[in-house]
Specification:
The complex is a heterodimer. By secondary structure, chain A is of the alpha+beta class. Chain A is built from five helices and five strands; from the N terminus they run E-E-H-E-E-E-H-H-H-H. Chain A has two domains: 10-85, Roll (Ubiquitin-like (UB roll)); 95-160, Orthogonal Bundle (DNA polymerase, domain 1), CATH 1.10.150.120. Chain A has helices at 31-39, 95-102, 112-125, 131-138, 149-160, and strands at residues 10-16, 19-25, 57-60, 63-66, 79-81. Classes of the chains: A alpha+beta, B alpha+beta. Bound molecules: FE2/S2 (inorganic) cluster (2 copies). One FE2/S2 (inorganic) cluster binds next to loops of chain A.
């Protein structure tokens, strides 16, 4: 295991949405700060920085992670997926994103990318959740704008129309 | 000209939002993403751990020397470089951007570090030494008004900084002639909708121009722009405020960024570089904003048939430590509509503004409405209970009747339109109230605690800029009358005929871009996707006025109207241009599908883009005296918003919607949890501009209101320590707690705004908390209910107060009762060695330093007194503290008393304890007890973790003591919290 020195800037290389990126991070730098201020993506939102709100959620090697509770150096060598990856390359929204739009599942949009990432992982495991299961899962995220109504409808509608 | 109303293709439709695509892709640039200039520095703020204390000294020398630190600023710098903020009241309440001489609440900014990066800036905070002299704080608003209460602002001389009495109609007679006087005392708690995104400010001072260029997520009202520029000692035009297109929620809270704007501006001036500051959640929860807690003593004069003939309000709002503009707005914004939805002509009001040692109060969604309606609708419920009537019948009996609009309410509100009785019957019918009543009967028959609640409220929107004038005596306000509410929007058509819109609404996620695109598309015969709306804002370039901003639900009756007017001007101009080409009078033209055409011969047409383009490409051919280009600004201020009259009546808002809610709740007998079974909410918000967005506003307001009713409260200890500094302490409802409300709409177009639309985003913040409380009152047959209705409170109502735990080892009491945030414990342990050895170790500075967990350095500073430098942490916060410990009552080698305190950037503590030593099998028995009071960050975020942390710390201390006495090496490398984490199984 490499030794990480306090104050030193270590190179961190990871695969971000399919592309290899490299930046530098002190050992204590959070993954959320790294992605936003070192790499320059805009979807990893910091809502609480203490692991409660879920706005910073990204997938690390396919696992749902709070980027505000993960150190950048921990993500070295991993595959990170963020909400930027959900739409197709030519900019067409994914089915889930379209459902959010149709059902007014977002307002300020600050919580949204994190919620989409949690859902991406969750729906792989449980493609047809009941409303109760879905609400249980979404309770790991905070949204201050929407009252969750639109996003619950969006996901149920999306799942309904999915081939299984 | 075709009737504009006929052409409404998009307005009024549930058009999907144009905002969503970029947001869903995660590509929107919020404030933290805005580009900054190379060399931008980052700021962190040192905050007060005390609710009330004199600042004796601030030593920044060590912090300044740290590599990467550019500057450290204190109250002295701020006083030198800026003025205290202007306030509404004429009182000597001076707030600067950093504390000066005194701190007045936990979380108050005391010093600012500017450094190369945020991590270094935060490190440097722990190297600033502040010496405080703690003072007794004024915390409880009822105690704060007593004669011997500590005074928050000595220069004022009292914590009551304003008292105003108002009387309308003949309240004396109404109460004298009443069959019954119903009384109620309400304490409405402190809360806030706490947007997920915190404050962000970047300021760049330009010396050659003496200009402050600021990018921030400020949301207005721009009445605070002059407050900032005056504090900075510059002309308004020298404070350029820019706000981005995207904001992570506002809810009123983001006006409160303004003291930080000034702070970061002067920091930038001082260091000669741009400076950026991003607020974290603890800073936000403890120090950003809270709706004022309110004490209301209310009386209703009642006839035995349920008619209410008069209201008496004695309202006392707690504004915390300072009165930041536009405070005390919550007490006056609702003034004109103090009689709610009722036809009550006799009204007496006393308003008091009280200062305490808490976070300064602020603008938060609902803005005075939740507090006021909590009192009104609770008392209407109580009237029904006391008269043994159905609560809904009492509401029905007193409503403003149909057919009287516009109706002037007692205190001056001009209710613009509606039919309240019909609305209620519609809700009863469509919302199936009968079934709900049946359900209540069934559940009660099954032994369950089930209740039904009602609330009828009037939802004001678009504040009159003169609403605060009523706080001034008549003669004073007449010298400088204020009223009105200006809105601005601009529609531009470029040389290729594409249309763009700018406006003054500073959106916080509500979907303004979509609605403006709907409006302009309709007026110009285009589709919304042809209209590019840019709502990022720049005071140096955009049309603005003091009313600019996002608050008081002003969008649909203000900015939307200004935009409609701008679009109509563009249409008029293009009609004249087209009329010349098509050879028909302008009023015979229609704008349809991208064309301008003759209504009598639709083949006679010109493309929209061509007509617009000619104003750019061939200005010489324009009709006489027409100016080139197509760029029109619409400005509007409704004439109904006058300043208060000489009877103190004021039309506090422009439009008044109606909301009627009813709900069924069931209470879990074992846990005391309130479960919302059904919730029906009827809204008459005039014409709906976009029903999809309107429902979203209702859902959002409802969710927060559920939080206010059941979970959310900023809690303070009696010593003023702040106890709810994380989202695990300040509980916010999740998808699990918020059910979907059943929404019913009715549309009575407003007469006072051209689009007929009223506000819709605040109604449920006002109606829902009290509707739920009324249902709980119905379920439990109680009338003294204080929000939030937590399981603990409800259980106490059902089963009586819970007894304190009788745990004799370590009990962490973080409740608000008693001594504030006190941690107490006692225990005993056996360490190897004779009592004398243990005693010697405790008195030997070097040995003691090795024993205290996290101790870096310990110096003896007097007889039996020590100063130490220690690292400690609880939960997510760790930091370095300075400790002072003194030993007294010493009987060698038997017992001693320890007392002292800790202070550091993360908080302060004071405490004392006793240690007794006695010989025991295998060594010395050490018995101890302690009581420690905590404040600052540790108290705010660590509440739930303190018990475990204390236990771990104490255990570790004695382990190390044993090792030291026994001559073993003390394992000093591992910080104690790792031990705690290990014991919790969180690390290996
Ligand atoms: S920012 Fe990471 S969970 Fe809130
Ligand atoms: S949409 Fe604003 S927080 Fe969820």
């Amino acid at each position: 295991m490499p030794q990480l020195n306090k104050g030193a800037h270590h190179p961190v290389t990871l695969t971000l949405n399919g592309d290899e990126v490299t930046g530098h991070a002190e050992p204590r730098m959070l993954l959320s700060d790294f992605l936003t201020h070192e790499i320059g993506i805009t979807s990893c939102h910091v809502g609480c920085e203490h692991g409660v709100c879920g706005a910073c959620t990204v997938l690390v090697d396919g696992t749902v992670m709070r980027a505000c509770l993960t150190l950048a150096v921990q993500a070295d060598g991993t595959e990170v997926e963020t909400a930027e990856n959900l739409a197709s390359d030519d900019g067409e929204l994914s089915g889930l994103q379209q459902a959010f739009k149709k059902h007014h599942g977002l307002q300020c949009g600050y919580c949204t990318p994190g919620i989409l990432m949690s859902l991406t992982a969750y729906l792989k495991e449980n493609p047809k959740p009941t409303e109760e299961e879905l609400r249980d899962m979404l309770s790991g995220h905070l949204c201050r704008c929407t009252g969750y109504v639109g996003m619950v409808k969006a996901v149920l509608d999306y799942c309904e129309n999915q081939e299984t | 000209m075709a009737d504009a109303a006929e052409a409404k293709k998009y307005l009024g439709q549930p058009v999907e939002r144009v905002e969503d695509e970029i947001l869903l892709m995660g590509k929107a640039q919020y404030s933290d993403h805005l580009p900054t200039r190379a060399g931008t520095q980052h700021a962190a703020i040192l905050r007060s751990p005390h609710a009330h204390a004199k600042i004796i000294s601030v030593d920044t020398s060590r912090a300044e020397k740290m590599p990467g630190v550019t500057a450290v600023m204190t109250g002295d710098d701020v006083r030198e470089m800026s003025e205290a903020f202007l306030i509404v009241l004429r009182q000597p309440i001076n707030q600067w951007a950093l504390a000066v001489e005194k701190v007045r609440y936990v979380g108050e900014p005391v010093a600012l570090v500017v450094a190369r990066d945020r991590y270094i800036a935060e490190d440097a905070l722990s190297e600033i030494d502040v010496v405080y002299e703690p003072m007794k704080p004024a915390i409880d608003q009822e105690e704060a008004v007593s004669d011997d209460a500590p005074i928050v602002h000595e220069t004022v001389g009292s914590n009551v900084v304003s008292t105003r009495n108002f009387s309308y109609g003949d309240p004396e007679a109404a109460f004298a002639e009443a069959d019954k006087v119903v009384k109620l005392k309400i304490r409405y708690p402190r809360n806030s909708q706490t947007p997920l995104e915190g404050f962000v400010v970047t300021a760049d001072y330009h010396p050659g121009e003496d200009l402050y260029d600021v990018a921030s997520n400020y949301q207005g009202p721009f009445t605070s722009h002059p407050v900032m520029s005056m504090a900075l000692r510059v002309k308004n035009s020298q404070l350029r405020m820019r706000t981005p297109q995207w904001s992570g929620g506002g809810f009123g809270v983001k006006v409160q960024i303004f003291p930080y704007v000034v702070l970061i501006c002067i920091a930038s001036k001082k260091v000669g570089k741009p400076v950026k500051w991003v607020e974290d959640k603890l800073e936000h929860l403890s120090a950003a904003a809270a709706a004022p807690n309110r004490l209301i003593k209310m009386e209703a004069a009642v006839k035995s048939d349920g008619t209410v003939t008069g209201f008496r309000f004695d309202q006392q709002d707690d504004y915390g430590a300072f009165l930041r503009a536009p405070m005390p707005g919550p007490l006056y914004r609702m003034h004109g509509i103090l009689t709610g939805a009722y036809d009550i002509t006799n009204l007496a009001v006393t308003n008091r503004v009280v200062m305490t040692n808490k976070c300064p109060s602020a603008m938060v969604r609902g803005f005075g409405g939740p507090q006021m309606y909590y009192a009104i609708e609770r008392i209407m419920h109580k009237v029904a209970v006391e008269l043994e009537m159905d609560p809904l019948d009492v509401i029905r009996k007193n409503l403003v009747p149909a057919g009287v609009f516009p109706y002037r309410a007692a205190a001056g509100a001009l209710l613009d339109s509606g039919d309240y009785p019909a609305a209620i019957e519609k809700a009863v019918e469509d919302g199936a109230l009968d079934e709900l009543k049946k359900r209540r009967d069934e559940r009660r028959a099954a032994g369950k605690k089930y209740g039904i609640g009602y609330a009828a409220i009037v939802e004001p929107a678009q504040s009159n800029m003169g609403y605060l004038s009523n706080i001034l005596p008549r003669d004073e306000r007449q010298r400088n009358p204020k009223g009105g509410a200006v809105a601005n929007a601009t529609v531009n058509v470029d040389p290729l005929g594409t249309v763009s819109v700018t406006a003054d609404s500073i959106p916080q996620g509500q979907g303004h871009m979509t609605i403006l695109s709907q409006i302009v598309a309709d007026v110009l015969g285009l589709t919304p996707d042809h209209i590019k709306v840019n709502l990022d804002f720049d005071t140096a370039k955009d049309a603005w006025s003091i009313a600019t901003g996002n608050y008081s639900s002003r969008f649909s009756s203000a900015t939307a109207v200004a935009c409609q007017k701008a679009a109509e001007k563009v249409r008029a101009k293009l009609s004249r241009i087209a009329s010349q080409t098509l050879n028909v009078p302008p009023d015979q033209l229609e704008f349809v599908e991208g064309k301008i055409r003759d209504t009598s011969n639709i083949e006679n047409a010109i493309n929209f883009y061509r007509a617009a383009g000619s104003a750019h490409w061939t200005p010489g051919n324009l009709p006489d005296e027409m100016e080139p280009c197509v760029r029109e600004t619409g400005s509007w201020s409704p004439p109904e918003l006058e300043s208060p009259n000489d009877k103190d009546q004021i039309n506090t808002s422009l439009t008044y919607g109606f909301v009627f809610d009813f709900c069924g709740i069931e209470i879990d007998d074992d846990t005391g949890e309130v479960k919302i079974d059904r919730y029906v909410t009827l809204h008459d918000s005039g014409t709906l501009l976009n029903p999809l967005i309107a429902d979203g506003q209702v859902h959002g307001a409802f969710a927060w209101a559920v939080g206010c009713a059941l979970y959310e409260e900023f809690v303070y200890g009696d010593d003023g320590s702040f106890l709810t500094g994380t989202f695990a302490d300040y509980l916010v409802p999740t998808s699990w707690e918020v059910p979907e409300p059943e929404i019913i709409h009715m549309e009575s177009p407003s007469m006072v705004t051209p689009l007929g639309a009223k506000g819709i985003g605040e109604g449920n913040c006002m109606s829902t908390p009290v509707c739920l409380a009324n249902a709980v009152a119905d379920a439990l047959d109680v009338d003294d209910l204080t929000l939030p209705l937590t399981p603990a409170k409800i259980s106490a109502l059902i089963h009586g107060e819970e007894k304190p735990p009788t745990n004799d080892t370590i009990a962490a009491d973080t409740s608000t009762k008693g001594e504030g945030n006190v941690l107490q414990g006692s225990g005993e342990t056996v360490v190897p060695g004779e009592p004398q050895d243990v005693w010697d170790t405790l008195l030997d500075p070097e040995a003691l330093a090795a024993v205290i967990p996290g101790c870096h350095k310990l110096d003896q500073v007097g007889d039996n007194s020590y100063e130490a430098d220690v690292s400690l942490g609880v939960g997510p916060v760790r930091g370095r503290f300075k400790a002072n410990v003194a030993l007294s009552d010493m009987i060698e080698p038997e017992k001693a008393t320890l007392s002292g305190g800790l202070i550091g950037p993360l908080g302060a503590s004071r405490g004392s304890g006793h240690v007794t030593l006695s010989a025991a099998d295998g060594g010395t028995k050490v018995a101890y007890d302690y009581a420690i009071e905590l404040s600052g960050t540790v108290a705010s975020v660590g509440g739930r973790l303190l018990e475990g942390a204390a236990k771990a710390l104490v255990n570790q201390f004695f382990q190390r003591l044993g090792a030291q006495v026994g001559g073993e090496p003390v394992t000093g490398d591992e910080p104690w919290w790792r031990g705690l984490l290990r014991s919790l199984g969180l690390v290996k």
